[in-house]
Amino acid sequence: AQSVTQPDIHITVSEGASLELRCNYSYGATPYLFWYVQSPGQGLQLLLKYFSGDTLVQGIKGFEAEFKRSQSSFNLRKPSVHWSDAAEYFCAVGESTDKLIFGTGTRLQVFP
Amino acid sequence: EAGVVQSPRYKIIEKKQPVAFWCNPISGHNTLYWYRQNLGQGPELLIRYENEEAVDDSQLPKDRFSAERLKGVDSTLKIQPAELGDSAVYLCASSPPGGRWSYNEQFFGPGTRLTVL
Predict the structure, then answer these.
(1) Residues of B with CB below 8 A from A32's CB?
(2) Which of A20, B6, B39, B113 has the fewest Cβ atoms surrounding its Cβ within 10 A?
(3) pLDDT tens digit string along B82-112?
């Protein structure tokens, strides 16, 4: 069965620092991979997705993620975090574009 | 363009009472999803509609949960009777039509936070 693991429940960084959020998945084939962000009281917003091709994908708000098949990982990165990036981040894996399995999320806190 | 609309945003009820959530998807989106998000967890799919047809309801607890999407537009999710464990955020999402192998992004509404006392 597919599964997604986000090992970090809570991460705190200073504004301007770099960020990496970890995501590991379990799936037999190459899955569809996604990162979503959820601000308090808001729905989820898609940051980026990976289906195939270039393993480094660019998303909105300056985020990028790298697919590493050998490590079954799809980590999210940002070179310089802004205070407005504080939110909950979810990694998701899908056997199709319609059926997604979400991780438990990583809460990002940004200090000025 | 208006996003996915959900109401109410918050609902507090006593256990054994019924409750209903409403979702209006983005205009033109034929696929509609209902998710449940427990505290500290990611969303879990309850049911997916293609137009008015429920094409995946395998995770919907059918003894107490029901959903409908009459006319293939807005949708209602109902719980009757509610239990303490149903406290969660219920998210609705929609996606536009597309080819089988194309990606159709899911757009999420703000959710309804249900508290069962």
Answers:
(1) 103
(2) B39
(3) 999 999 999 999 998 875 556 678 899 999 9
Q: How far is B68 from chain A (nearest CA, A)?
A: 19
Q: How far is the alpha carbon of B110 from chain A, nearest alpha carbon, in Å?
A: 4
Where do the DSSP E strands lie in chain B? 5-7, 10-13, 19-24, 31-37, 44-50, 53-56, 65-68, 75-79, 88-95, 107-108, 112-116
List CB contacts (< 8 A) between A46 and chain B.
105-106
Q: Read off the pLDDT of residues A20-67 as tens digits, 9 standing for 90 and up.
A: 999 999 987 778 899 999 998 888 999 999 988 889 999 999 999 999
Interface probe with A: pick from B39, B108, B112, most Cβ of A within 10 Å: B108
Concatenated DSSP letters for A62-109? G-EEEEEGGGTEEEEEESS--GGG-EEEEEEEESSSS-EEE---EEEE
Q: How many residues does chain B have?
A: 117
